[in-house]
Write a structure and sequence with these properties.
Shape: elongated
Strand order of the largest sheet: 7-6-5-9-8-10
Largest sheet: 6 strands, parallel
Number of strands: 10
Strand content: 15-25%
Structural class: alpha/beta
Distance between the termini: 54 Å
Number of helices: 10
Helix content: 25-40%
Radius of gyration: 20 Å
Order of helices and strands: HHEHEHEHEEHEHEHEEHEH
């Protein structure tokens, strides 16, 4: 039986300030939860309608009823289990060849999809500006489909970070160089801006080269591409040349 206090605490993890207060976030669904023991994430508590299926001995397990699961799940259709996990330290990996940089991305679905793309292409790290949506937002975690376990996501003062970055910094913009006609360096950062406003001026000032996805349609009336869609197209082109 879940206590009212436990239910209230778990429900509060929907908000960033409480995730930061308790240093906890939620992972839902047996498929992703089963991957947690092989990752850098530590499970604090595990709530499941059938804990034996998970067989995770390192966690504090509690068997709950489907009605209780509904109270602590952030999904419209709750799955089977909820894991409360500890938020790890924000650590930047130093030696990565290609990394993504996100400047003010706000949509949880976009961040989740970008993390999945990074995982697909073997990109180990995503650097985010401090005002980018929180990676531990439940909607982001769900959208990653488990890829957050394999991609290091860090939050930094972007201007300070990029000003000391040693390798080329490629920015994405409607007026950049054609991605199909350039040679990509061996090591670099690829920067994507806010969904509505693009890159902020302080970030643009630190860009080595702007790149763009050219339009091929006859009318060329489409204003822009979704940022996660753009990420997929550009990464596909980068890795087609490797």
């Amino acid at each position: 039986m879940l206590t009212a206090h436990t239910i209230k605490t778990i429900q509060s993890l929907d908000k960033k300030k409480y995730r930061q207060k308790y240093n906890l976030f939620l992972v839902e669904g047996n498929k992703i939860i089963k991957e947690l023991p092989n990752s850098d994430y530590e499970i604090s508590d595990l709530y499941s309608i059938d804990p034996e299926i998970l067989n995770i001995k390192t966690a504090n397990e509690t068997k709950i009823l489907p009605a209780e699961l509904k109270k602590i799940s952030f999904l419209q259709t709750p799955k089977d289990s909820v894991a409360v996990c500890k938020i790890p330290e924000n650590k930047i990996l130093k030696d990565v060849s290609i990394q993504l940089v996100l400047d003010g991305i706000q949509d949880p679905g976009n961040l989740g999809t970008i993390i999945r793309l990074a995982d697909w292409f073997g990109i180990e790290q995503i650097i985010c500006s401090n005002d980018t949506v929180d990676v531990y937002n439940p909607k982001v975690i769900q959208a990653t489909m488990g890829s957050f376990l394999r991609v290091n996501v860090c939050y930094v003062d972007l201007e300070n970070y990029l000003s000391t970055y040693e390798y080329p910094i490629l920015g994405t913009d409607m007026d950049g160089e054609n991605i199909y006609k350039i040679e990509f360096p061996e090591k670099f950062s690829l920067v994507f801006g806010n969904e509505g406003n693009g890159l902020r001026a302080s970030t643009e000032n630190l860009i080595t080269k702007m790149i763009t996805i050219p339009r091929f349609g006859k009318n060329q009336s489409t204003e822009s591409l979704n940022v996660s869609m753009s990420t997929g197209i550009i990464l596909g082109e980068i890795f087609s040349k490797k």
